[in-house]
Amino acid sequence: MPDWRALTAEQLAGLRLPEARREEIVQELSEHLEDEFVTLRQRLPEDVAQHQALSLLARSDVLVREIRKAEKEDPVTQTTRILLCGIVIGAVAFLFAASALAFFKGGVPEAVEAASGPAALRGPYHWLLHLAAGVWTIWLHIIMRPRYGSGTRTAALAGFALWLIGALAAATWASMGFIPPNVLLVAAVAGLPAWILGAMAGAWPYELTERKPAQPLKAS
């Protein structure tokens, strides 16, 4: 019979929890796996029962995520990660959009100059707005992950959602004559890839700093 406690402790080593609380979880989960093995052993050969019980532990990345959610990550740590990754998103989006707008200047100079003249691009409030939007984007990514999963696909969806909200808001102002239509078009075209790439760039370090179990366990 496998050492259920040792296997469970190895798989849950990545949890950011007090040692005493981690030990409680390891003890409870290992007892559950042993009980599951005993139950399966009543109707299955020992090797098959052991394989099925181990398969539960092999999916412990799900258990880690659920336990972390239940235990609540340190608010300071979580806030710091959100702010830093949001800054990455805002910076990447700003730089990409600025480069794209500079590229488009040859085709519609008046529109681009009105939307992003040299003074506007250097204005600190543009940086601050992009950084704030970057924090909002990483927050969107976090709340979307339970539904769509982690990874670049969900990050891209979060970036698209941010761009869509901004585009609709700008279109509202354009419909009232406050923003010229050509300015809106250029900003929307430049902003879409900027926010999608920015979201993907910021989500990568966010998920990288979310520790997983040391290594996946293969049922055997």
Instruction: Count the E strands.
Output: 0
Percent of residues in beta strands: under 5%
State the low-pLDDT regions, or none: 115-122, 211-220
Radius of gyration: 24 Å
Written as H for each helix and E for each strand, in order along the chain, the element string is HHHHHHHHHH
Largest beta sheet, briefly?
none
Summed up, the helix count is: 10
Share of helix, binned:
over 70%
- Which word captures the global form? elongated
**Structural domains: how many:** 2
> Pairing-aware structural class of the strands and helices?
mainly alpha
Kindly, what is the distance between the CA atoms of the first and last residues, rounded to a whole number of angstroms? 12 Å
In terms of quaternary structure, the protein is: single chain
**Overall pLDDT confidence:** 77
What does this entry show, briefly?
It is built from 10 helices and no strands.
Characterization of this structure:
This protein has 220 residues and is mainly α. It folds into 2 domains: 4-71, no CATH class; 75-208, no CATH class. The chain has 10 helices and no strands. Helix 1 packs across helix 2 (19-41), helix 5 (75-104) packs across helix 8 and helix 5 (75-104) runs antiparallel to helix 10 (181-208). The chain is elongated and about 75 Å long. It starts with a helix and ends in a 12-residue tail after the last helix. Residues 115-122 and 211-220 have low confidence and may be disordered.
